[in-house]
């Protein structure tokens, strides 16, 4: 029988940045122009083969509206990785992203892997956040960063494939919850198209 590894991921970020659209593109390869804001959170899974294993993404898509903010810890506390999304056409959403990173550092799991997604890169003609700013920030916090478009299916697979080696949870073996000890070395082995900053050595390893 094939081993199944579970990868627990949550999505965080301002309302309207495209978190649900990213998940919908990844799980169903579909984009809905009229998607509704998420209420509370929604849960989806996607299983992908990898060698002689199956990797099952358990994805919590949280609601970005401020009134749901207090629910977020329920989702990020059990996650091995957080995908924090901003909208490249909205500087404010990049500011909100930084607040999420701060909250994760203060209240999230100790070794949570962070991936930053600058979504709506199909709208780069009205861009407000330079990629350089996102890369520099990601590097400073040891996060993966990639620009995505849920609409045009750009870098969505790459985003999840990039965090995959870092967030594996073995569900068949008892006692395994979050894999984190080798996170730093695995991050360095990310595909070249993802900008992988080495996680700071401080208490991580
Ligand atoms: N142009 C463009 N529009 C997008 C993209 N991704 C999402 N959108 C649009 O942005 C709007 C918000 O998308 P959602 O996926 O609902 O955003 P969300 O982050 O889940 O919002 P909350 O659930 O309120 O937190 C919708 O109108 C989407 O169609 C993208 O890559 N490009
Ligand atoms: Mg949503």
TrEMBL record:
Cellular compartment(s): Cytoplasmic vesicle, Phagosome membrane; Early endosome
GO molecular function: GDP binding; GTP binding; GTPase activity
Membrane topology: Lipid-anchor
Signal sequence coordinates: none
Transmembrane segments: none
InterPro entries (UniProt xref): P-loop_NTPase, Small_GTP-bd, Small_GTPase
Entry annotated with the keyword Membrane: yes
One Pfam family in the UniProt entry: Ras
Database matches in SMART domains: RAB, RAN, RAS, RHO
GO cellular component: early endosome; phagocytic vesicle membrane; trans-Golgi network membrane
Keywords from the UniProt entry: Cytoplasmic vesicle, Endosome, GTP-binding, Lipoprotein, Membrane, Nucleotide-binding, Prenylation
Keyword set includes Lipoprotein: yes
One GO BP: phagosome maturation
Similarity-based family: Belongs to the small GTPase superfamily. Rab family.
Annotated NCBIfam families: small_GTP
Protein name listed in UniProt: RAB31, member RAS onco family
Species the sequence originates in: Callithrix jacchus
Gene from which this protein is expressed: RAB31
